[in-house]
Every structure is written in structure tokens, then in C-alpha cells.
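Feature request, filed as a ticket because there's no other form

It would be nice if the structure record came with a short human-readable summary line next to the C-alpha cells. Right now we just get the raw output. Example of a typical job, pasted below so the devs can see what we mean:
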Amino acid sequence: MTITRRNASRGALTALTAGLLAACGSDTPVEPPAPPPVATSLVIVSGNNQRRPPGETLPAPVVVRVNDQRGAAMAGVALSFTIQAGDGAINPASATTGSDGQAQTTWTLGAAEGENRVQVSATGTSLIPVVFRAIASNLILNAVSPDTLREGQTATLTGQGFDATPTNNSVMIGDAPATVTGGTTTSLTVTVPTRACLPLGNAAVTVTVSNQTSNAVNHPFQPPAFDNPPLGQLVIIKDPRDFCLQLAPSVTGADYLIGMGVSAELPLATLPFTIRGRAGALLAPVSPSVAASVAVTSIPRGRLFDDALVERRLAHLRAESRLRGWERQHLGRPAGPRVMAARAAGAGPGAAQAVPSVGDTMTIRVPNIDANPCTPVQIGTRVRAVGNFGIFVVDTLNPKAADSLTTAEIQAFRDTFDLHTYPTTTTYFGAPSDLDANSRVIVVLTIQVNKMAQGNIAGFVFSGDLFDRETQCGSSDEGELFYGHVPDGADSAGTGARSKASVLGQMSSLIAHEFTHNIQQSRRLIVLGGDLMTSWEMEGQAVLAEEVVGHKVLGNMPGQDYGATKVFDPPGANWYNPNFAQLALYYGWAADGQNPDRRNPNAPELCTVFGDGDLNDDPVIPCTPFWFYGASWMLQRYIADRFGPGWGPNGEADLTRDWIDKSPMLDGVQNIEALLGVKFDTLFAQWSAMHYVDGRVTSADPKLRTSSWNLFNIFSSAREAARLQPAARSFAQFSDARSARGGSTAYTLLTATAARPAMAVRVRDANGQPLATGLQPQFWVVRTR
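Raw output as currently delivered:
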């Protein structure tokens, strides 16, 4: 009894509380009643785009659905069906949607061939009508056999409205024409096209007669083979008729690097092409997503190349390149044998001189590279240091200032040249000639260099010094010389101040670069009586000389897979950073000090390893000038790493010396093929793939790697703008119109992070025809993940 009364009391209290809340208001929200349903959309469910002969009833009814504002089916909406085109008939002409929101009618086509249309409207509403379309045609494709189409095999098409004359029927399988070999008005026999580059999956089959095309029947298609290389393995296709990659479907993700390269040594020529991707069948079940790329966490990101150093280097190279071009245009063959014979006899204007001593004076003819380099600027010099391989002299009219080079600093240049530069470069490239019979190179440090090329050149060698002064080149010093700049903090030269730190920082690597040109020129022209190599060969070797002399100075060596710390951190940065900066120019880095993240478009595909000075200012070359220095250097480093071990007692040094000496009348690609005994087109494809694969795929074919440097590690640490950036595409349909220059490659990275469908990737010209073979195009793929 007591418990019951307590419960009753609690019930009364609850009722009282509810009443008070109702009277005084409550914070508890009360949902408003749901609005009544309103028809908001009319959608096609089925029955659209059918095809039957004129006058026939379509096999499937046309079905529509009305949705309310929540997307739910709405019943009881009156619909009207109206013929818009084709003079056909519908039955019924009106209907009301059922509980599923749908209504339907039967459609009989008109008596004439052509498009028929029916409009469906919701009576008494503002809903946008929908329109069904159908084709009244006597040309209908019903079926295709066998069950799976394969290239080159016979297939049968059945239907109606075909032409009894086989050649009057055009059959397409996908976007490739099939050959019609026989048939009647209801059956055609065809040969499935070869080289169609259709992916595994369904291919649309159509028949066209008298400009009228049938309905499409999607039928299974099986490509002849798949190009799914193992991880890190390269597949190269050289016949443009076969420029097709067939990738099988998979339940896992993958990355494929695709290259469309042009290996011909024709840097002025470009090859336009279209690369097209078609997705096909997908395997089930779909796998979980996998990592999209290799993680690099041990090195800092976003590092920059030294913009100021790069800017100085590019200005210097522009001036040097103009000088090399002048030499090629105006200097023929030196009268070396006559001069050396006269000197051997102790007679003539170029007779050998005794090795000077410190303090001696010498008259030097500096080539005037701002005008005619064979017109000399004559200066007096004093010997400041004499080494085993170098004689260092200074212009007596150099600025006398606090920042002038000291005797100790000049002696340090001498020691570096004696201990590192001369022995390393001569081991790698051979001994230079010795026209002045002093067994040494004369290094001339003069303010005259500061005055030249608007102050942009830091130093140079001049091949005119190998020519006869009396009959061929009036500025010739008839010996082996290097002309270098000097500190000029007060800008007495009038072309811009130069600090001592700038001169000291550049001099050793600059001498290594320029002395290599002296070796190349004198060995080819004087010692071997041959021809000069191409500009891109010579500059690539000169940059290689900077690298290997840097190794000697720093105690490093090739083949060690060095990474970012060697390139970006002292002391290696002084030797290696400029080389990789020039390689980044080839990749598309703009070297824009105001915007370090800016890239040049269409690089490297419209740049070229075969560059020279004449291309630097060509507006069709998108790369920042002197990109080819880095590209050619990396080509020669790749070749040295790959073929150098075991080449001779000195390994890669014997190979690089043979590059100059083995075939002194050959240059460029012919020189490389004669040296290595391999075809350059294959080598070029492997080198092109190496730029992206090296360091990224640890299990890659050694032919796709360079053992001296880890490019992935180096460029992953650099700013993104400095990296090689392939065009990114997924396993879906795409079509890109692109071009590649002779000596370049257009890269595409095909990426799937999870399950991927079959994929067919084809390269053709703008008209869908195989590319011409004149530029030696090549199509290749390597799986990178």
C-alpha cells in the first residue's frame, strides 16, 4: 500500500511538472511537422537510345520516375508522353506514377529512317521534361562471335541492313578498322585488326553502310600479350607500328614510367605525337589502397641550389659558349706539325723557352674575345709561382688593392693544380700538347678578363693558342694557357666589382673545367691530327672533370652512390652543386632567383642532351640556357659508371681518355657507338629511364642506375621545381598531344594506388598513323612501384 501511494504521488508530480512546463515554456526543441512531399525532378529510368527498323515497336518500354524534394519516389503524379520527332506512336499517351514513383509506355517508331524522340512531362507542374531518343534504322547489329575477339582472327557479325558487297561495309572494333572479307545483308565476316592497341575488356563493334552507322555492340576483346615488366625492368619498343603498351589488370596498385624518346642527334628537329590511354577490364575484389611512392625521411626537403652561384655560372657559360662558337666558325686546322718541327730544331718564333723562375717577366697576348679573338691585347706579366705542371703569372697592371691575391693564395692554386687538377685531368682525358716545350700550363691572372664579356666571364682557354701566330692567329701564344679573372673590389675594370671570395671560390673548379678543354683541343687537333668533338661532348667532359677533380681534392671517389649531403653541404657543395644545378635546368628548373619554385614548361622533352651554344637563345627551347652541360655530364657519368669498371688498368679514366683518342675523326653519337660498340638508341632509352629510376627502385636493373650518385636522394631533398616531373596520369582514359626533340624524352607516370584495370597506351601521330622513323623514336616502360 505504501509503495503504491508513492508511485501514484510521483505520477501526479510528473503530470503537474509537465503542465507547468507547457504553461511556462521549455528549452526542449519541438520538431515541426514534416512538409508535404512535392515533385521536384523527373528522371529517365530505362528505354532510352534503342534502335529498331522503321515502324517496329521498341522491345523495351520507356520508363520514367518522379522524385520528391528528399529524392524519394512520389506516387500519383500525372504524366503525358508526346511524340516530338519521327511520327511514331505511343500507348498509352498518359499515365500516373505508382508507389515506386514510376510510369511507362510502349513506343512504336515512325515509318521513316532517322531519329525519333518522345518528350515526357509532368502535368500541371513546372518540372523540366525529359526526352527519350531512338533510331529508326534498317541497319542493326545484333550479335558478334566468337565469344572473345583476338587480333588477326576471324569474327562474324549478324544483324540486318548490311550491304551484300563486303567492301561497302565498314566495320570498327574499338577505334580500329576491321577488314571485311565476306558477307550478306544479315551476316558479315571480318578479320579483327592487328596493332589495334585495345585494352582487355569490351570493345565497341559497329557497322557503317552508306554513311549510316549501326548501334554499338560491346564485345569481349583479348590483346595478344601483356607488357607487365617486373619491378625495375625496362621494356623498349622501337618499331613505331608497335608503339602500344598492354598492361594487365591487377588487384594491387602500381606506378609505370613511360617514355617517348627521340634518339637521333638532330637537336633542331621535333617529333609531335599523341599518347592515348584506354582503360579496360577490372579484376575483383578491389584491394586496399597501397603506398603511392617511396618515403624519404632521412634528408631535409626543399633545399635550394646556390642561386647566386648558378647565376654567375650561367653568365660565364654564355660568354664561354660564344668563344667556342667563334673558334668553330673561324679556325680551321692548326699548323701544329710545322710549328713543333721548327721548335724541335731550336728555330722559329715558337722555339722552346726555358722554364721561368719566380720574379721573371713574360709578355702575354690575351685574346680579345669581345671582338676578334685573334686580335691580341698584349700585357706584361710577372711570374708569381712555378710548379711541376703550372706557371702562374699576374698582369703587372692588375689593381693593387687590399683584396688582391696574395702570394700564398696563388701558391695554393699552384699546389691544387699540381697535386689534384693536372694529374686527375690528364689521367681521365690524356696529356695536352706541349707547343712551348715547357711541360707546363701557363695560368694568366689578368684584369683584362674582368673587362671582357661585360664582366660575365671568369676565365677561359683559347684554341687559337694552338695555331701559328704568324700565319693563322695573331693572338696565339703558341702554347697551353688559361686566362683567369682577378679580384676587383673597386671595379676598376668598369664591368662590376668582383670580390676575392668570389674569385677564390670559382678558380679551382674553373681551371679544371677549362684545362679539360685545352686537353680536348690539343689532343684532337695537334697530337692526333683529328677533328674537335661536338660542343655537348666537350662540355659534358669538362663538367665531369670538375666532378672527378673535386673527388680528388675531397678524398671522394666514383661509384659510391653519394646523396644529398655531398651535393648541398660543404665542402662538396663547392664542387658538385653547380653540376646538379645544371642537370636541374634540363629537368625544367627555371633558376629564377625571385621565384625559386618556377619551372619551364615542356621540359625536358623539348630540351636536348645534344645542345650547344647556338640553341641557348632559341625561343623554342624551354629550358634555361646551358641545360645541356648538366645533361651531357650525366650521360657521360652514366656511361663511365656502367662501362668504366674493367675498361682498363685505370677503369673509367681509361674509358674517358679513349672517348677523345680512340676515333679522333668522329664525334657525337658516332663517336660513342665506336667507343662502346653498342647502339646509341638503346643506351639512350636506358639513360633516360635512369633519371627517374635511380635510387627510387632499389631492385632496378643496373643499366637503369648510376652507381656514383643517388639521384632520387639528391633531388628528393631539393625544391620540387628542380626535380624531373613526368606528366601524371591515372588508369583512366586520357589523350595528350605532345612533342619530343631530338636527344630528349617525354615522360608520363601512370599511377594506380589500389586495384587497377587493364590499360592500353598507344603513341601515334596527329592523324592516328605510326610515327615516322627518321628521328629514331622509341617507346618504353618501366615499373617503378
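Something like this underneath would help us a lot:
The mean pLDDT is 89.
Residues 414 and 761 are 58 Å apart (CA to CA).
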